Amino acid sequence: MEDILARHLRIARPWYPHDYVPWSDGRNFALLGGEDWDPAQSELTELTSTALTVSVLIADNLSAYHRDLAKYLRHGPWWRWVGRWTAEENRHEILLRNYLVVSRAVDPIELERMRMTQVVAGLRRPSVHVLDVLARAAFDEAAATVRHRNTAALAENSVVTAIADRLAADDAAHTEVFADLVAAGLNRAPDQAVRAIADQVAVFETPEVTLADGCSGTALLAASGVYEPVRAPEVVFGPLVDRWKIFSRTDFGSAGEQAAAELAVLLGR
């Protein structure tokens, strides 16, 4: 962990949320003598505003994800990584909310109501082994990378593209860290690690976000191609499984071979 964290800190490029927000577009709301939000003020397409709303609501639940990691990774460099990961992820929520409110892309009152609902609901995940936690985190970050890259590819405007590209770069860097930790687990306990990978692929779901109109953000993004859960074996799991060389390893025992066989079925290999 020490070496993996040191490498991440060495290559991580500093960036600042305020640099990406078009502050000159902002103006006061009615409480301070300005004008409250009106749908006509939004210049984003419905798809892009939905994609950014889903991203900010997932980011709003950072405290829940922090707790989920911190209860397993509580000592030394593990704890420092949880803190660093949390601090880096927090920039996503800061940037997205500032952009959405300043640009009046979405109703800020509805956005706040959804945030309250999302954070109060929190995150409940069953207790698992630390290897399951690391595999799940690698898949979570890989899925977020795909979602943000596809949001950037919508080419809504130069600011949204820059924001989505920046978030995708962070997600990819976090995927690297968690993937390297899983790889280390495979080297130390191959059977247990591949079982964790197979189990997490079998139950993987991206965070569910319910929008103000009651619709599923996950379903809307799937229908639009921004993030399609049905393609997860190809775009999320497959690249990581190949990176870990699961199907060419020769150090599995019978339990590991069974888990690898199950994984092959899940991936359609």
UniProtKB/TrEMBL annotation:
The keyword Transport does not apply. InterPro entries: Fatty_acid_desaturase-2 (IPR005067), Ferritin-like_SF (IPR009078), RNR-like (IPR012348). One of its GO terms (cellular component) is cytosol. SUPFAM superfamilies: Ferritin-like. The lineage of its organism: Bacteria, Bacillati, Actinomycetota, Actinomycetes, Mycobacteriales. GO terms for biological process: fatty acid biosynthetic process. Belongs to the fatty acid desaturase type 2 family. This is Acyl-ACP desaturase. Keywords: Fatty acid biosynthesis, Fatty acid metabolism, Iron, Lipid biosynthesis, Lipid metabolism, Metal-binding, Oxidoreductase. The keyword Metal-binding applies. Its cofactor is Fe(2+). Homodimer.
